[in-house]
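Weekly sync, protein design subgroup
Attendees: M.S., D.O., the rotation student, P.L. (late)

Item 1: inverse folding check
M.S. brought a backbone from last month's batch and wanted to see whether the design step gives back something sensible before we order anything. D.O. pointed out we never logged the input encoding, so this time it goes straight into the notes. Structure tokens as presented (266 positions):
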């Protein structure tokens, strides 16, 4: 099992981070975790976390919410300079989490787009895949990522929540993948739109994640999420896609290994 998106550097894991990591790898000796950076400090912490196990990797980037947190203190130039420096670390496998978030703030759309595009351009230059955050901004996201200049840039939209119409548009882009987390376990309605969306997407374009410590899947809902719970996400994807779990898990793992270029040690 591979958890392609976790935030083990968050304070939620301060007291038992090593135990959380041990639980995951006791169950998944050939598994892997990608720990995701979101700002100046957490990019550094994300890389530090990779030292706790040989099969933990990191992604570095600037989440759109950083513009709200640091405001005028934020410097796009300094952000790219940090990416240039840290991307040389051997266990950095992607640029992310980057993107657009109009749910938390729809007043700084211009600045969000500038930050997003600058990071896409950096990833393109360095030939690194990207991990994209999107909330209430799928139309603007598609307009940006469908640009011809990004045709060869691998992108995965994490915690994907697009509707059927939006998904149809993104499926036209060969370089865009989709990652699902515990949110797909919240509904038991057979006709839930997220299930219809999952059925639309070929398994070869799907990855699994937790987004720990957030979005703990059923039956762990309400608890702190952690990487070992990714198995519930995989089980739900298998159920929705009407696939055998073990076989589907292998495909999702292969997708992640290929997308991120992971070198997992047994």
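Designed sequence read out in the meeting:
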């Amino acid at each position: 099992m591979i958890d392609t998106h976790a935030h083990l550097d968050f304070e939620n894991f301060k007291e038992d981070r090593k135990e959380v990591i041990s639980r995951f790898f006791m169950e998944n000796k050939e598994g892997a975790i990608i720990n995701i950076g979101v700002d100046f400090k957490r990019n550094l912490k994300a890389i530090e976390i990779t030292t706790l196990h040989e099969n933990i990797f990191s992604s570095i980037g600037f989440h759109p919410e950083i513009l709200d947190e640091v405001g005028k203190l934020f410097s796009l130039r300094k952000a790219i300079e940090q990416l240039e420096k840290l991307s040389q670390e051997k266990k950095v496998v992607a640029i992310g989490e980057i993107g657009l978030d109009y749910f938390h703030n729809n007043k700084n759309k211009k600045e969000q787009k500038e930050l997003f595009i600058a990071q896409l351009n950096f990833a393109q230059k360095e030939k690194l895949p990207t991990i994209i955050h999107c909330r209430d901004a799928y139309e603007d996201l598609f307009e940006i990522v469908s640009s011809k200049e990004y045709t060869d840039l691998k992108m995965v939209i994490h915690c994907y929540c697009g509707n059927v119409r939006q998904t149809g548009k993104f499926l036209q882009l060969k370089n865009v993948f989709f990652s699902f987390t515990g949110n797909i376990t919240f509904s038991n309605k057979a006709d839930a739109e997220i299930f219809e969306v999952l059925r639309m997407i070929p398994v070869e374009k799907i990855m699994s994640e937790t987004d720990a410590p957030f979005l703990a899947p059923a039956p762990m809902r309400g608890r702190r999420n952690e990487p070992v719970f990714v198995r519930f996400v995989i089980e739900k994807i298998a159920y929705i896609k009407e696939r055998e779990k073990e076989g589907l898990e292998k495909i999702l793992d292969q997708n992640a290994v290929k997308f991120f270029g992971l070198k997992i040690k047994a």
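Discussion: The chain has a mean pLDDT of 96. The chain has ten helices and eight strands.
Action: P.L. to compare against the previous round before Friday.
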